[in-house]
Amino acid sequence: MNFKLKIWRQPSAASKGELRRYEIEKISANTSFLEMLDILNEQLIKSGEEPVAFDSDCREGICGTCSLTINGEAHGPAHPAAACQLYMRQFKDGETITVEPFRVRSFPIIKDLVINRGALDRIVQAGGFISARTGSAPEANSTPIPKHNSDLAMEAAACIGCGACAAACPNASAMLFTSAKISHLALLPQGQAERSRRVLGMVRQMDAEGFGNCTNTYECEAVCPAEISASFIAKMNREYAIASLRDRLGE
Amino acid sequence: MIGSLESKTPDGPLPEKWRKHQNNSKLVAPNNRRRFEIIIVGTGLAGGSAAATLGEQGYNVKSFCYQDSARRAHSIAAQGGINAAKNYPNDGDSVYRLFYDTIKGGDFRSREANVYRLAEVANLIIDQCVEQGVPFAREYGGLLANRSFGGAQVSRTFYARGQTGQQLLLGAYQALSRQVAAGTVRMFPQTEMLDLVLVEGHAKGIITRNLVTGKIEAHAADAVVLASGGYGNVFYLSTNARGCNVTATYRAYKKGALFANPCYTQIHPTCIPVSGQHQSKLTLMSESLRNDGRVWVPKKEHDRRSPNEIPDSERDYYLERKYPSFGNLSPRDISSRAAKEVCDEGRGVGETGRGVYLDFKDAIGRLGENTIRERYGNLFDIYERITGEDAYEKPMRIYPAVHYTMGGLWVDYNLMSNLPGLHVIGEANFSDHGANRLGASALMQGLADGYFVLPYTLPNYLAGQIGKRPAADHPDFKKAEGEVRARIKHMLDIDGTRSVDSFHRELGLLLWDKCGMARNAAGLQEAIERIPRLRQEFWSPNGGVSVLGNGETFNQSLERAGRVADFLEFGELMCRDALARDESCGAHFREEHQTGEGEALRDDEKFADVFAWEYQGNGKSAEPILHREPLVFDSVHLAQRSYK
Prior knowledge:
The structure holds two protein chains of two kinds. Chain A is of the alpha+beta class. Chain A is built from eight helices and seven strands. In chain A, the strands form two sheets. Chain A has a five-stranded mixed β-sheet. In chain A, helix 5 (175-186) packs antiparallel against helix 6 (195-208). The longest helix of chain A is centred in the C-terminal third of the chain and has 18 residues, at 231-248. Chain B has three domains: 33-265 and 404-462, FAD/NAD(P)-binding domain (3-Layer(bba) Sandwich), CATH 3.50.50; 268-402, Flavocytochrome C3, Chain A, domain 1 (Alpha-Beta Complex); 475-630, Fumarate reductase/succinate dehydrogenase flavoprotein-like, C-terminal domain (Methane Monooxygenase Hydroxylase, Chain G, domain 1), CATH 1.20.58. Chain B has helices spanning 17-24, 30-33, 45-57, 95-105, 112-132, 164-182, 247-254, 318-322, 332-344, 361-367, 369-387, 442-462, 475-494, 500-514, 521-539, 556-580, 604-607; strands at 37-41, 60-64, 82-83, 147-148, 155-158, 185-188, 191-199, 202-210, 216-220, 223-226, 259-260, 265-271, 294-298, 315-316, 356-359, 396-405, 408-409, 422-424, 609-614, 625-630. In chain B, a hairpin with a 5-residue loop joins strand 8 (202-210) and strand 9 (216-220). Chain B is globular, with a radius of gyration of 24 Å. Chains A and B meet through helix 1, helix 2 and helix 3 of A and helix 3, helix 5, helix 6, helix 11 and helix 12 of B.
């Protein structure tokens, strides 16, 4: 298969970027999208042009490192999948493919397609945990958890932290990411003690990082490689309302 | 030159050693802990849990990772599960049985006391993780669910769908995040360790490169902990993440830390077969699939029929045939070799003939498609995405791939290397898995080391070190920093013609061929001849490596070049170790040493010991020196491993 590529090149955070055109030929349909970029980079190195910088690590959709906007869609057309799980058989021979980084103000570009997602770490640091001192835990089976709650917590916990939700959202909202962690921990008995503090802290940090609000467009859910449900955002809003009220009442 | 290797294993009966050691270990008082700086390299299960726990105890921790977030360390990709001898299913499990299965699984090439300790603290890990909110699978009654895994006859594996590593890592990451917020841990993401700094023989710091700005920095500390994972990527194609590398441990080796058993590399039996020459990685299908899948190949050679057209009588369920009591759940090394054998006979399946079937038809018939979907749905999805085939309709094709490395830096019972102050945990050390690791044991070891072992043993070193931390501008730091800068400049100046990946791929193919699933003396000698030539080519201005860009910016070619340069040296060490170990054991299969039935033949008289290598330079005249730590077995009888 042959493709025409338009790829975002930007030498550094401070410099201006542009879409540059490349052509690539004789790509097997079983090549993954990132392997296609590897092959392009081999060509560029041969011709003395600096290779395209892009992020990837596990290349199996679990680490959340890859962060490409392909033909305008976060992670490309093969939902639910991360960009690393995309194969060239998804594209038409001769197609022009546009590759850009995730476009979110809170994820500044480092170089070419590589972005800084430190904002997501800071949201977790603002309360996305259960304070369980090492070695102080009770016997694991002493608190049975209904399978339904535990399964639901797992669905929320499956988030890979890639940030595609914010990239797809017209408001650049990180609510799917934040609500998934809040819901995961609020659904478990171990998460109750810090439940109010957690939602207040995480939402405040999310706002401070400059992410936008949710206006129910569901783009986040559509692109999420881990199929996190947007219903968790509703859960987060309930959690936040109750916690704010309690906070105001001085509880 | 190093004297004899002392494991510092405590005396006394096996079940009492760890408690006794804990009671005799030194303590650092709470008000003194904040006077110590601890460097931890790596934020996977071992590094993340150690950083969180040491921070919580009040130490000042600096945590480094090459990824852009601690949550992306490669532990996240582990699918199957984590072992513990809770005996919740009431099938007769115990700490002793978990210990015995693990040491037998490692083909009696690991330290008895370390393995027993691992089995002992495993139960605490489950308690700890549940308390952190890890959503392990549960039964309808609300209690934790278990499943069985390769190499065991009990159900002792805890799991969170096919994403156990992810959930355990997020637990550790969240605990780490809590400490970052509390100010006890400082994070250095996108920062790579490029050298270890010794001051008066003690590990007192590291030199790093900030991958975003290119800045080279010196970090001084009271102790250094390496939790930088394994070296499977030396083979180029493996199930490891692209960034996994040997640099941190290899740099420590070049500074005098002993590298133990580098030839013990695990080839995982259930991966999606290689399909093209530009493939960048291999994808694992969790071993848990072998609980319900049956492995087979056609009885006839070169049988090109579609699998569903081959009747049962013309299929060879070779694992069930050869190992009736463990069958499809035979350990990884045995299952991998068996797959290689049937493919070598010409009975492999798929386009390349390097594949075997993993068939769920019987399980779907017995349990229904829904149950199978619930158990393995995400794995079936991964398979379909990569191959375009539906495994509910047609058996999966699988083939072994490099997955995990049992070897690593040598450590004593305190997890300290031969260099005082340098501690090594998780996959980066050599200690617990011997010559082969059983399924669901890697997560167990990573978290055991980080949560429950290192925090108790580190004070044995620290207690004598109050006020001994050098400043980061100490001459030894300046010297190491200068060497790092010179090496980077050298790499950028080569200005050759080949990409970093092309060298890496060539090295990988050579090692897979000569030092992969089966090895022999002639092949290993050939590799030992050829690797230095490839290394020379890499550094040569004529046809050498091409690293474009500069060192002061984000430069992925430069990062990879540094890692591949280390692999090009390390690969040779691996082959030397494989050649010196003139026996077969676990994953190390020397063709010269096999039973009449093709099983690994150990030589306990000569080789019941740990091989630990001391660096002497890279020249021909400077071969590494081999040190041997004899393994003493007081509690187990060295049986020939049988899964028949």
